[in-house]
Amino acid sequence: MLGMCRGRRKFVAASLALIFIPALTWLYLSSANFTVKPLPLSPLDPQSSVLIGAAAEHQDLELQLRDVEEHNHVLRREISLPPRVPTHSSHHSNSRQGNQLHTHSTEEGTGDSEAKKGVASGNSSDCVPQPVVNKCETIHIAIVCAGYNASRDVVTLVKSVLFHRRNPLHFHFITDSIARKILADLFHTWMVPAVHVNFYDADELKSEVSWIPNKHYSGIYGLMKLVLTKTLPSDLQKVIVLDTDITFATDIAELWVVFHKFKGQQVLGLVENQSDWYLGNLWKNHRPWPALGRGFNTGVILLLLDRLRKLKWEQMWRLTAERELMSMLSTSLADQDIFNAVIKQNPFLVHQLPCFWNVQLSDHTRSEKCYKDVSDLKVIHWNSPKKLRVKNKHVEFFRNLYLTFLEYDGNLLRRELFGCPSETDHNSENLQKTLSELDEDDPCYEFRRERFTVHRTHVYFLHYEYEPALDNTDVTLVAQLSMDRKSVVQLDMGNTKKALVVPAFETLRYRLSFPKSKAELLSQLDMGTLFTFRYHVWTKGHAPTDFAKWRTATTPYRVQWEADFEPYVMVRRESPEYDRRFVGFGWNKVAHIMELDAQEYEFVVLPNAYMIHMPHAPSFDITKFRSNKQYRACLKTLKEEFQQNMSRRYGFAALKYMTVDNNS
């Protein structure tokens, strides 16, 4: 509101300037008693024979007039544009404003039918207050997410929302068992302040929509947005519903504030569909579901849940779907077809959003007409099966924006919302307390901080099926291992403390015919295609494996711990974890093997298992180790501290670890 009022003050000031400045100029020139002539633009002009003093005054006046004219020109341009309310980045120091988020009105931008007609153009004589979102108001977001792929996609969406947000958020996930496990672990380890998460079992909802035949690739889950009024808590009044293939480029509070603009019986906020699908002209005999004009896209929906329940939404969409399916037989675009059929019969239900709230990047869309510049974008919707390979003249910008959030370190989003009360997260509180006790001036601060940092965990990033073994001998693979011999059972791993050593080899070739048997591996070893791992730079790391004995071994054999031993091992789940102080390059496996030995684990070499290290570019951390003296000094300090800890925990038995060469 303040911005609009100031805009009108500028209009009045500009008008007065346009009227009075020419008059004042005429009076000034008349009182000087000389004829008005074209002012000299160059000292070489033959007309510049006027007195030097007068010429100087003329030049000063000319410069002033030009400055005023340029300023008036800018003001005219501002006046001709629709008024904009300042965003959060342009707040003034008013204390009340500091607790509120100012947003753009829905009349801005292309794609809004009222704006095109000139309705609410902002030229009225009074300053109309614009709706705002209270700083501490919780924004509710509902997302249907099922399976491994959708779980990966939704994380990128969530990161884009968290990056821009300034309000508490409450996510409502309708998930299958896979997505629930993934996302529950993710948010538990993420520990983002002022974020709440609830899960709703999608399997319990299947019966509500399974009777609807659906050709869309989203399957039965693509219909579940229809039953959100029944699924979400009865006291939840409104919610923003998002597809998983959405990327936000602005604060979601700007979308939440649009609820204040709903009028009458409007209960759905939607953006017009930007393809010609519902016009029925994409191919011969193309027959889409009924829709109002171009129809609406349901990738972004504003739902007024309380009003929808009063309107008996469940009955409304069911009757519509039953009627249309008698002739259409199935849906092509899942819930979107049914939403549009309902709106066709009841157009008063919809509040049309400007199309920058859902820029649809499928092929053959009018999305490029939604914005004049990519900076105008609010929400990007990858609603084509092609996803990042879709055709658009700005697709490189969109792709880079998506990849930015895909690769963004989610740990950086753990920022507090100051001034908003929130429930105490004891895990987060304890972590912050521990980190605050560290000395930030310590040259090894980053190493010490990493030891206590809890990293967000995304389990089952790829498709994964697992059924626990009844005899407690199931194995988790943490590397590429040859597991066609289950030594696990023979060596009674479930009841004894053993670390199974997998002999490691390496090749310097980027292409290798992987040996399918031990005999093939020995042949490649003899020909020089393979080598024992790190034999030429760090023999101590794997020497205790005793490769000479392994060549002829047919049964597992035991080896003893030696200084700097760092084999690849298979151990029980209950075994000691890696010491977190050793991040990056250096001593992580050495310390772990030392801990296993201290706890009296037996190191048993598997005679028919092996692994091969393939060549790759040096890691960032090994580069730092080689080039940064301080990095190496910190690593040496951490080794000494670890050895001292071992001595305190294991007493006299740990004396042998104190003699390990710290230069390793």
Automatic annotation (TrEMBL):
Record membrane topology: Single-pass type II membrane protein
User: Where in the cell is the protein located?
Assistant: Golgi apparatus membrane
Q: Which reaction does it catalyse?
A: 3-O-{(1->[3)-alpha-D-Xyl-(1->3)-beta-D-GlcA-(1->](n)-4)-beta-D-Xyl-(1->4)-Rib-ol-P-Rib-ol-P-3-beta-D-GalNAc-(1->3)-beta-D-GlcNAc-(1->4)-O-6-P-alpha-D-Man}-L-Thr-[protein] + UDP-alpha-D-glucuronate = 3-O-{beta-D-GlcA-(1->[3)-alpha-D-Xyl-(1->3)-beta-D-GlcA-(1->](n)-4)-beta-D-Xyl-(1->4)-Rib-ol-P-Rib-ol-P-3-beta-D-GalNAc-(1->3)-beta-D-GlcNAc-(1->4)-O-6-P-alpha-D-Man}-L-Thr-[protein] + UDP + H(+); 3-O-[beta-D-GlcA-(1->3)-beta-D-Xyl-(1->4)-Rib-ol-P-Rib-ol-P-3-beta-D-GalNAc-(1->3)-beta-D-GlcNAc-(1->4)-(O-6-P-alpha-D-Man)]-Thr-[protein] + UDP-alpha-D-xylose = 3-O-[alpha-D-Xyl-(1->3)-beta-D-GlcA-(1->4)-beta-D-Xyl-(1->4)-Rib-ol-P-Rib-ol-P-3-beta-D-GalNAc-(1->3)-beta-D-GlcNAc-(1->4)-(O-6-P-alpha-D-Man)]-Thr-[protein] + UDP + H(+); 3-O-{beta-D-GlcA-(1->[3)-alpha-D-Xyl-(1->3)-beta-D-GlcA-(1->](n)-4)-beta-D-Xyl-(1->4)-Rib-ol-P-Rib-ol-P-3-beta-D-GalNAc-(1->3)-beta-D-GlcNAc-(1->4)-O-6-P-alpha-D-Man}-L-Thr-[protein] + UDP-alpha-D-xylose = 3-O-{(1->[3)-alpha-D-Xyl-(1->3)-beta-D-GlcA-(1->](n+1)-4)-beta-D-Xyl-(1->4)-Rib-ol-P-Rib-ol-P-3-beta-D-GalNAc-(1->3)-beta-D-GlcNAc-(1->4)-O-6-P-alpha-D-Man}-L-Thr-[protein] + UDP + H(+)
Q: Which CDD domains match?
A: GT8_LARGE_C
**Does the keyword section mention Transmembrane helix?**
yes
Instruction: Provide the alphabetized UniProt keywords.
Output: Glycoprotein, Golgi apparatus, Membrane, Multifunctional enzyme, Signal-anchor, Transmembrane, Transmembrane helix
Main location per UniProt? Answer: Golgi
Is Cytoplasm among this UniProt entry's keywords? no
Q: Name one Pfam family in it.
A: Glyco_transf_49
Give GO BP annotations, semicolon-separated.
Answer: protein O-linked glycosylation via mannose
Q: Name one GO cellular component term.
A: Golgi membrane
**A GO molecular function held by the record:** xylosyltransferase activity
Annotated region described as Disordered, given as residue ranges: 77-127
Of which family is this protein a member?
Answer: In the N-terminal section; belongs to the glycosyltransferase 8 family.
What is this protein's record name? LARGE xylosyl- and glucuronyltransferase 1
Q: Which organism is it from?
A: Cyprinus carpio carpio
What broad taxonomic lineage does this protein's source fall under? Answer: Eukaryota, Metazoa, Chordata, Craniata, Vertebrata
